[in-house]
Fold:
Amino acid sequence: MEAHIKVLFFVLGLLVFVSISEIHRVEATGECGSSTTPDIEARKLAPCATAARDPNASVSQGCCAVVQTFCRNPSCLCAIMLSNTAKMSGFDLAIAITIPKRCNIANRPVGYKCGPYTLP
Structure:
């Protein structure tokens, strides 16, 4: 029950943060394209919340499906993991960067540099 409450507070906090950040959004072409931003795309990683904080947590199929989509654009994946939304959600980059490998994604961008880390 306590875990469900933590997830609920995480999702609510994420929604509040994203709502506030949307007010200040600037249109520009970035790592994730011209119609979105890494902060907006980071909302899609909600199923990865536990796996991005705990290296021993199992990674859900929903999380792996989202991450597999982002692996097609490594610069976007990296920008999402480094985004303010991910940071405010408690993502630990050192752990989050391991999710593609933990999902056994065959075509993940192995060796791609993301901040101070390299995708395994």
In short: The CA atoms of residues 25 and 37 lie 9 Å apart. The longest helix spans residues 2-23. The radius of gyration is 14 Å.
